[in-house]
Amino acid sequence: MKNKKKIAVWLTLTLLLLVTIGFVTLKNLTYQPSSLALEAATNTSSYTVETTNNVVYFKPTKKPLNSSLIFYQGALVNQKSYSIWASKLASEGYPVYLVHHPFNLAITNKNKAKDIVEEYAIKDYIIGGHSLGGVMASRYAHDKQKDPTIDKGSLKGIFFLASYPDSNGSLKNTDLSVLSVTGSNDGVLNQESYLESKKFLPDDTLYSSIEGGNHAGFGSYGPQKGDSSATITNKEQQRILYSTLFSWLKTFGN
User: Fold this and answer.
1) I want to staple 65 with a disulfide (CB 3.0 to 4.6 A). Which of 38, 60, 93, 240 is the partner?
2) What is the largest CA-CA distance in the chain?
3) 120: which DSSP letter?
4) What's the number of CA atoms in the CB half-sphere (13 Å) around residue 60?
5) Where is the signal peptide (predicted)?
C-alpha cells in the first residue's frame, strides 16, 4: 500500500513538473510586442486601454462608431502585438478588442468572441484574425451564420490577415463582407492552402496584398521563425494595413 502511495505521489509530481515545463516553454516561445506596440497600448486623448485576462480593449474617447472589432491573435503571439493598427482604428472611433486566448493559441477556444460580445454588450461587430487566429475566427463566423443566437450581437463582416478559412469555417454562401489581406513576402503562410481556401469564401471577397510585407508585419513583435524578410519597414506595413482596414470599414456606413 505504501509503495502504491509513493508511486501515486511521484506520478503526480512528475505530471506537475511536465505541465510546468510545458507552460514555461510556451511562454518562452511566445512572440512579445515591440516597444512601439506597448506604447500604442497606453491611454491617449483619442482612446483609453482596458487590459483584462481576456482582452485588451481600445475604447474611443469620442462617441464610438456602430461597429466594434473583435480580433484573434496569431499562434503564440501576444495580443498587444497588434496594438499599433488597433490604436489607429480606435482613434477613428472604432472600439477594438484584441482577444487573449489561453497559451496565446486561438485554437484553445474559438468561441471567445461570444464572451466579449456578452461582457461588453456589443451590438454590431466585425471579427478578424491573424494566421491561426483567422482560421478560428472563420469557424466562429461560420457557426454564427448557422445559428445567429449563439451571441446577442450582429456579425457584419470578417477580415483575414495572412490567413484563410478551412472547411469548418466555410463562408462560401455568406452575406457577410469579407476582406483578405496578405503580404507579398510572407514566408509562413502556406500559399497552396491559401489559394485552395478561396473556395470557402464568397465571390465578392475583397483581396489586398501588401507589397514587400511579411507574416510578422501584420503585428509588431519582431522576426518570426520561418518568415521571409520584408522589404518595407514594420512601420510602413502597419500604415498600409491600417489604411486598408479603415477603407474597408468605411463601407459599413458607420
Assistant:
1) 93
2) 72
3) T
4) 18
5) none
Which tens digit of pLDDT belongs to each residue from 204-234? 999 999 999 999 999 999 999 999 999 999 9
Pairing of strands 67-72, 206-210: unpaired
Instruction: Tell whether the torsion through CA atoms of 180, 184, 31 and 35 is positive or negative.
Output: negative
pTM for the model stands at 0.91
Distances (CA, A) of 143 to 31, 133, 155, 168, 214: 29, 15, 11, 9, 30
- Model confidence at 53: pLDDT above 90: yes
Phi first, then psi, for residue 64 (nearest 5°) are: -70, 150
At position 206, the amino acid (one-letter code) is: L
Q: Please state, in angstroms and rounded to a whole number, the distance separating the CA atoms of residues 130 and 86.
A: 13
Element (H, E) at 72: strand 67-72
Q: Supply the CATH classification number for the domain 34-252.
A: 3.40.50.1820
